[in-house]
Amino acid sequence: MIFAEKHLSLLLRRMNLDAVLFWSLENIRFLCGFTGSDGALIYGGKERVFLSDSRYEEQAKAEIRAAAFRKYRKKIEGVAQCLRSMRVKRLGFEASALSWESHQRLKGLLPRVSLVPLSEAIAGLRARKEPEEIEKIRRAIQIASESFQDILSRVKPGGREKTLGDFLEIRMKRRGGEGSSFPTIVASGSRGALPHGKASEKKLEEKELVVIDFGVRYEGYHSDETKTLILGRPDPSQKKIYDLVRRAQERAMKAVRPGASVRRIDAAAREVISRGGYGKFFGHGTGHGIGLAVHEPPAISPRGSGVVKEGMVFSIEPGIYLPGWGGVRLEDLVLVTDRGCEALTYLSKELKDNII
């Protein structure tokens, strides 16, 4: 919370705000500890109030920290009443989380309050992770990695993509995960050309590439990793493309250090793939931040902005996707350190270790 407290204190002063209204559950959990599914947080310079209804009264009182609790019967009306009692005149709010309808209702109830939309100003609020957050991500990675090892004996010709995905999700929950970070991706053969190919009833076949993208949530924090397996000895084209993606990933990781531009990190991976002749087949960004949400700042892409800072955790996941042939994606999570980066995920991405 050290980084966030400093960020918000500066924001309140710089934009002359009395308070910020938080609506997204991820930011609410991050700032006051509430893990339920509905509520709002008013973050003032000295006064902070979490609001919810009677369903969450006891839970909120047990969970929230550094904030008072107020109960409402109707959400917008309750928030408006609280803001009036706090004498807020200039209010920042999460523009990406508060719906237009809710904004208009709030505006109607608070005609003398200036509502200031915040987007970029709070986008990176959770980007730099505290040590306790990093430990939760490490634990999520451990659960996911050990569960992946559990399914390797089932990755063989004749097995179905969906069966593998389902079994992996079951194993992650049994090992202590709260749930999958996202529906597990298992895409074999030509389906590997689908970057987000949903696991299907397709059966795995010999000599195929199998892309498996998986993650788990632990105490609210997520992991995310992609392995590409080869069912049998790789042919020359499979080996060439796998090696190209692996070199691109390694190059991007070497480019990570405090102060490095997110675009430069992306370019480090993209240049390797482009020089190899497959630039047009790498259509997504090189990485994304992760934490209480699976996708959060920073965005490591050609359209990203800013630089990376110590404490940020994000993915490095270049890929090549060839329609009708298949695809290769390799993804690891890295932590920005004072001198470079540390790979948090630890399952091998070397070709020799991924031949089944």
Compact description:
The protein is α+β, with helices and mostly antiparallel strands and 356 residues long. The protein has 10 helices and 19 strands. It has a 6-stranded mixed sheet, with helices on both faces.
In words, what does this structure look like?
The structure is a single chain. It contains 10 helices and 19 strands. It is α+β, with helices and mostly antiparallel strands. It folds into 2 domains: 2-123, Creatinase/prolidase N-terminal domain (Creatine Amidinohydrolase, Chain A, domain 1, 3-Layer(aba) Sandwich), CATH 3.40.350; 131-354, Creatinase/methionine aminopeptidase superfamily (Creatine Amidinohydrolase), CATH 3.90.230. The protein has a 6-stranded mixed beta sheet with strand order 4-3-2-1-5-6, with helices on both faces. Strand 5, helix 5 (100-109) and strand 6 form a beta-alpha-beta unit. The longest helix has 21 residues, at 131-151. It is elongated. The two termini are 44 Å apart.
Residues in helix, %: 25-40%
With strands numbered from the N-terminus, the spatial order across the biggest sheet is: 4-3-2-1-5-6
What is the CATH fold-level name of the largest domain? Creatine Amidinohydrolase
Total domains: 2
Mean pLDDT: 96
Structural class: alpha+beta
> Alpha-carbon distance between the termini?
44 Å
**Cα Rg:** 23 Å
Structure annotation, total helices: 10
CATH architecture of the largest domain: Alpha-Beta Complex
Report the sheet-strand fraction: 15-25%
- Major sheet attributes: 6 strands, mixed
Shape: elongated
